[in-house]
Amino acid sequence: MSFTSPGFYLLLPAACIVFYWIPGRLRGIYLLVLSYAFYAAASRTYLVLLIVATATSFAIGLGIANARSETAKSRLMWLGVAAIVAMIVAFKAAGAMAGFLLPLGISYYSFKLISYLIEVYWDDEAVERDLVVFFLFPAFFPQIVSGPIQRPEAFFRQMREIMGRAASDAQIEAGFRFILGGLMLKLLIGDRLADVIVIIDGAHGDFTSATMAATVACYTLQLYADFAGYTNVALGIGKLFGVEGPPNFNAPFAAVNIQEMWRRWHMSLTSWLTDYLFTPLSMSLRDMRRAGLVLAIMLNMAIIGVWHGFILNYLVFGLLHGVFLATTVLVLAATRARGPVVAGGLAGAAAAGAGRVLTFGLMSFSQIFFHSGTWDQAISILAQVAGVGPSGSLTILDLGPGVALAALVCAAIALYVGGGAPGARWAAARLDGLAPRWLQYGVCAFLLVVLSDAGGAKFIYGGF
User: CA-CA 20 to 30 A from 24: which of 124, 278, 398, 431?
Assistant: First the structure.
């Protein structure tokens, strides 16, 4: 059952009512049963894999906390991490070589379990001894499809808090608002852009280079609408059950350079890799100075690339961002070394605007490799956009005026929301004075029913 299916939202209110009706100590068990049932609906076989991985991590975590020597703790931690990484690698490799279907959310729950083992290694007090709370941590159904990746301490603490807490009106409304906004972003913006992209991709050689360049920009906008939409839905469902998940996006199109963009895009993955991979790696390479920093950046981004899948396109995507990031870091360091930079007024605004355009352009360029199904398709699109490959005479207008207008509106909305939605709070405050919120929510729900396709397309990041 998908987060975009009407049936899911027929069951969700009842599930929430039961959750707050039962005694506090049973809520964890209830959520675990719900989460396993949700996972089993996708794959009963892979549910066994999730349970085995969780049980193994639970046992190793206890072993680390009870170990008497640093050597024993280190060996157990590395044993657990290696086992989880080997599981991810095996399934990713099988998917790349034989088209093997990946277990639902394997990357996300694996990252959660790895962070837990490392946290326990760093601090014995981080160990979780409550079996129900721990087994729920990787399985929590709002986060298992595409994240966000929540840290263990925050989840464990909140689970204990909700055992004795009643639902609040503000919490329920916030959860509903997140879900509604996320579904609108996914179904009314992301899926509509996807419809146009699929048509153009299917015969991209028939379209002009300019049209294909605009389509490449839409790759980024559609991915943002799809993924940020899912994140809002996941955060909203979590809020309904009293769990506050970590933010995953913060106006990424407002970033003035690629380094800032990665602080705003897929934030839970970026911060996870920063804490558990990049920081230890850069510290171990610090004697190499700038070369060590560049190497750490390249390795980190290469891993981000192949994390999506063991194919050349994803590796190139990661390496491109490694080059972009390393260049940005070195340029910023050299600029700061020459003294403080104070840019205000018109010049500062122009520089920030140029930085945003360049950052979006670099992100969209890399999306050619991320989005394309094969290496040949990526090279063909790249050549066409660069004006050195074959192209036709069709434009987006040839798809029909209604299609062109819808694509333009959806792209503008995605860019506006991803840029921080300037003026949105002011508009919302004015709207609250004109219409009650229940009416606003009703209109949004009506638009979803009328304008979206039944069930919607799958979330892009559900495949990772």
Answer: 124
Q: List the domain range (segments joined by +) for residue 442.
A: 173-463
Q: What token pair was written down for 80?
A: 């657990």
The one-letter code for the residue type at 222 is: Q
Does some domain include residue 231? yes
What phi and psi values does residue 71 have, to the nearest 5 degrees? -65, -45
Looking at the fold, whether 37 and 134 belong to one and the same domain comes out as: yes
Is residue 266 part of the annotated active site? The answer reads no
Q: Which residues contact 20 (CB under 8 A, 6 or more apart)?
A: 166, 167
Say which of 204, 308, 321, 371 is annotated catalytic: 308
Query: How many Cβ atoms from other residues are within 10 Å of residue 101's Cβ?
Result: 12
Q: What is the DSSP letter of 458?
A: P
pLDDT tens sequence across 206-233: 999 999 999 999 999 999 999 999 999 9
Which tens digits make up the pLDDT trace of 358-412? 999 999 999 999 999 899 999 999 999 998 888 889 998 888 888 889 999 999 9
Gap between the terminal Cα atoms of the chain:
17
Report the domain count for the chain.
2
Cβ 108 vs Cβ 140: under 8 Å:
no
The reply to whether 112 and 54 lie within a common domain is yes
Query: Tokens 């034989």 — which residue?
Result: 98
- Maximum Cα–Cα distance across the chain: 72
What pLDDT does 92 receive?
83
Contact 30, 19 (CB under 8 A): yes
Give per-residue burial for 421-438: e unless 16+ CB within 10 Å, then b: eeeeeeeeeeeeeeeeee
- Residues 262, 325, single domain; the answer is yes
Q: Would the pTM count as exceeding 0.85?
A: yes
Q: Are 259 and 325 in contact (CB under 8 A)?
A: yes
Quick check: is 20 in a domain?
Answer: no
